[in-house]
Amino acid sequence: MTTTTAATAVAGASRHPGVPRQLLIDSAYVFSGLPIALANFVVVVAGVSLGTGLLVTVVGIPVLAGALRLARFFADLERLRIPAILRRPRVRPAYREPRPGAGRFARVLIPIADGQSWLDATFGFLRLIVSLFSFAFVLTWWVGAIAGLLYPLFDWAIPHTEDNTQLHEILGMSDTPQSRIGLNLAIGAFFALTLPLVARGMALLEASFARGLLTGVAEVRDRITVLEERRAAAVSAEANALRRLERDIHDGPQQRLVRLAMDLGRVQEQMHTDLDAARQTIDDALSQTRETLNELRALSRGIAPPVLTDRGLPSALAALAGRSAVPVELSVDPALGAPEGRLDAAVENAAYFVVAETLANVNKHSRAGECWLTVTREPKALRIVVIDDGVGGAHLAKGHGLAGLADRVHATGGQLDLTSPAGGPTEIRVELPC
Q1: Which H or E element spans position 91?
Q2: Each residue of 102-138: pLDDT tens digit?
Q3: Nearest 5°: CA angle at 107, between 105 and 108?
Q4: Contact partners, residue 277, CB within 8 Å, separation at least 6
Q5: Which of 11, 67, 85, 411 is placed for a possible disulfide with 207 were both Cys, Cβ 3.0 to 4.6 Å?
Q6: What is the pTM of this model?
């Protein structure tokens, strides 16, 4: 059973409303929850009991399946209600669906074989207890607040006889209107001041209980799926990086080292026959050595450049921009290079890799005349934006340069968005969690 998550949160769920508005939201949730819970309980108990009792006959199976589908309806209704309380996106499990071509009887059996359907039914059985508990508390606090604060308006209408001992008398207060009104106003003020806390607590209790049964398993499965995807992306990114490093070493330094070994062997032979030729061969070998060292330095910069470790992300990105064949206009938050503002080493390496790969693709494929690179730090993410005025047409398909970049970003839990229409411009936006 897989799950799907709503693409966006319910409007307003991420914002924190004021105390009066939140009080109304919480109270409405609790008060409306009791009649819904009562209807849910009656329908599910009646349906499941009837279906279970009739299982000895064929009629019991469709009755039980119908009861589970009704439980799903009430569960979906609750999933629509809880985001306003928990301020979280709505999550709905993907219920088991019949296979293509399945017969009518197999389709009827689908809810009975679905684990989430039974969780929905369990929620229908138990939610009435939680709803009654929260309803009683919130109603008591509302009545206490309203009755206490409005007591001065109806004190005159309440009979005060000598044989009726009231609360103010039990507390040792004098039996006067002022004593009665003062005590009830104090009680009303206490209920009014604590009402938002009580309503919020009861709403959270009821909504958290619903989330645990109706979306808890779905969220765990979603989390496992995300972690598996990140692991696969990390493995793919590392495999691509190792293949590219192996290819670069084979095509560059390895070939030069083979030639260097041959030149040294030739020098050894020429030392006894032709010293001038030996000197020329040694000069060629020295040139090959310098070129090999330069290529090895270039490869090391692509893996973990010393400037990134020593001076931070701004200096490392400035060095990348300086080596770019396409002019780069660079804008980096300078705080990222300060000792107190530096990111975790894994985030810095990922950001450097993203920029290095993106600029490499700009130089190789974009035919751009200019490039703009912006790196800013958000409260919980590092945002990287690369724009070029090239021909466009870039995409993330496997086998293209940006595919490995997308895998690396996904492996860190980040997000990559690419916009590259034919004719340009190309814009890459990356957010890395930090």
Answers
A1: strand 91-93
A2: 667 667 777 787 878 888 888 998 999 999 999 999 9
A3: 65
A4: 270
A5: 85
A6: 0.54
